[in-house]
Each structure stands twice: as structure tokens, then as C-alpha cells.
């Protein structure tokens, strides 16, 4: 399916700034963005505080990244393949497959997630975190980054589900969206493209078992100094 001019830009991009913590402090804009995968020739987004990013963390697997990254000439690109080597989740239908996938990332790739945290922490300017759709791998990382700054769980969930309205265009950019027959609109297929809240809620439950995302990161080697620097960098105090 050819990509239209309307899709010659990131369609699942957002700044993680402006999110509220439990103390009412907001996260700082222009620190970290999340998105679907950039394509060669994409137009610069108009809604971000600063573009291009200085650092890009690409969470995709090797099979998804055969060419040079489109932002490699303007940003330092780090490839962190968070799904590499993980067992494929199996389900009997009682647990959503994405819930199992997200659990698998936290249990099977903590060192890689810590690496992502540190790349964003040390970025000298805006950092962009993305996978293919900007939904699952990016969703778990975003929950980790927001949670480590003390962002409220309801805000983390709300950010996650914002992808719902973007998924049809994401699939078009991935050349995976079907042509809709006459009389069928995007709303009618929305349920097939949804981001299930139970999946990201399970991530937050796992973080809660470690006294939050900051505690989870600490369990896996992140220092108190790094966590303090992250909050200083990401919060508007």
C-alpha cells in the first residue's frame, strides 16, 4: 500500500512532558519523546518542543532494522533489542497475550531496560524512544520512565491508551492496514487495534511489588544518584 502525504510523518509521536506526579509536579517537555518508527523522508513534527532529538533509542529487532536509521545523521542512535532472546509468550486465553509479553520484558530483559533508562538519562538534549508501532515495547519503556519520576498511575495508563486513536495510521505506515470496504470506517475496526489497559496495568503492578518503577530500577542496578538525576532532569521543580 503506498504511503500518502498525510503519512509522511510520525503518527504516534508524543512528548512525555506535562504528566502529573502524585505531588502535582509536571514532567518537563522536551526531555523524552515516544513514537512509532521514523521513515526516510519524514517531515519534521510541528508539535514537539525541539526537533531533531539528540539521542534515539530504537527498541526494534534486527529483522526490523535492515537499513541505516533515518535519524542517524542528526542524532546518536542506540539499538536496544529488548525482545531478543525472550521466550514467546503462551496463553490459554485467560491472560491477554500482551500482558504476558510485557511481563516477559520486565522479567527477561531488565538489563536492557536499565540500558534504555541510562541512555535517556545521559542524553544531552531530547531523547526519542521508539519501536515499530510505538505501542508495546515503547509503552513499557514509557511507563518505566514516567513511573521512575513519580508520575501518577492513571496518567501513565492514559498516555498508553492514547495510541488507540493512532493505530490505524500506524499500520498504514507499516503497510499492514487493510483497505476498508465501502461503508466501513475506522471506528468499526477500532476494537481490533486497541491497546488493552490490563497489559500496562500489569506492568504497574510489577513495579508496585518493588515500591514503584524507581524501586524496580534500583533492584536491577540503577543507583540512587541516577534516580535523583532523572527526577531533577525530568520534573519541573
TrEMBL record:
Disordered, as annotated region: 14-50
Domain Tyrosine specific protein phosphatases per the UniProt entry, residue ranges: 111-175
Compositionally biased spans, kind Basic and acidic residues: 36-46
Domain of life: Bacteria
Record-linked SUPFAM superfamilies: (Phosphotyrosine protein) phosphatases II (SSF52799)
PANTHER family (UniProt xref): TYROSINE SPECIFIC PROTEIN PHOSPHATASES DOMAIN-CONTAINING PROTEIN, TYROSINE-PROTEIN PHOSPHATASE
Family, similarity comment: Belongs to the protein-tyrosine phosphatase family.
Name of the featured protein: Tyrosine-protein phosphatase
Organism expressing this protein natively: Saccharopolyspora endophytica
Source organism phylogeny: Bacteria, Bacillati, Actinomycetota, Actinomycetes, Pseudonocardiales
